[in-house]
Amino acid sequence: MKAFDETPISRNGKSLILAHDHGLEHGPTAFEGVEDRLDPETVFEMATHDAVTALAVQKGLAETYYPSYEDDVALLAKCNGTSSLWEGEPYSPRTWSVESAVETGADAIGYTVYPGTNREPEMFEEFRAVQERAREHDRPVAMWSYPRGQAIKEHRSPEVIAYAARIGLELGADIAKVKYPRSPEALAHAVDAAGDVRVVLSGGSKTSDYEFLSTVEAAMDAGAGGLAVGRNVWQRENPERILDALERVIFEGASADGAL
């Protein structure tokens, strides 16, 4: 496979992934206050911003909208997912084959794994099949590594987040998307644990501009390889302004103060 830095989803070794799989994962409630963003085309337009290195969406959105944006947007195909209506043991089934995603124009493959759940062995096996198929098509793989399960008392503890990042390395991902472990030191530990895998920060729920950018600044200083963000961009009244600021922080090394 080609070096990650040579793939379309990387810019100087870093990535800013705009995620828009929330219609499946969270439903229409995720769009309260920004109902116009229920129209996926509005977010595809955001993804044409120079700061965005990839747009992560599910199969239906990609098949319907991506043909109009394939010249301006790199597609990260999210190949599994589940709805918030599901109340059983955390599990994210496959929703899209790698072959179909590649035919649609995917530049990279994304897949969620929930380490620590009763279905961990099943999800690891499914990830293996997806990762190997992606390698056959010369596509990088991003793992959403989200520990869950009754045995895990604190999902954002330094030990758990470092383990989540390490699982990305052990199972063959190129990117490990993890939650922020609440301190730069803890994230730096996760980055070390991940070896050559790029650790990208999950954007999480919407916060203020300064709080959000300060967290991203701290993550980049800790060695993160970028950001995978949804609601902290497209839930804002002015998404372009926050994308401008993120470009300065992630790719130009600006501080949160400087970026704003």
UniProtKB/TrEMBL annotation:
Record GO terms (molecular function): fructose-bisphosphate aldolase activity
Enzyme Commission number: 4.1.2.13
Source organism superkingdom: Archaea
InterPro entries, per the entry: Aldolase_TIM, DeoC/FbaB/LacD_aldolase, DeoC/FbaB_aldolase, FbaB-like
Residue numbers annotated as active site: Y146, K177
Family to which the UniProt record says this protein belongs: Belongs to the DeoC/FbaB aldolase family.
PANTHER family (alphabetical): 3-HYDROXY-5-PHOSPHONOOXYPENTANE-2,4-DIONE THIOLASE (PTHR47916:SF1), FRUCTOSE-BISPHOSPHATE ALDOLASE CLASS 1 (PTHR47916)
Name of the featured protein: fructose-bisphosphate aldolase
Species for this entry: Natrinema versiforme
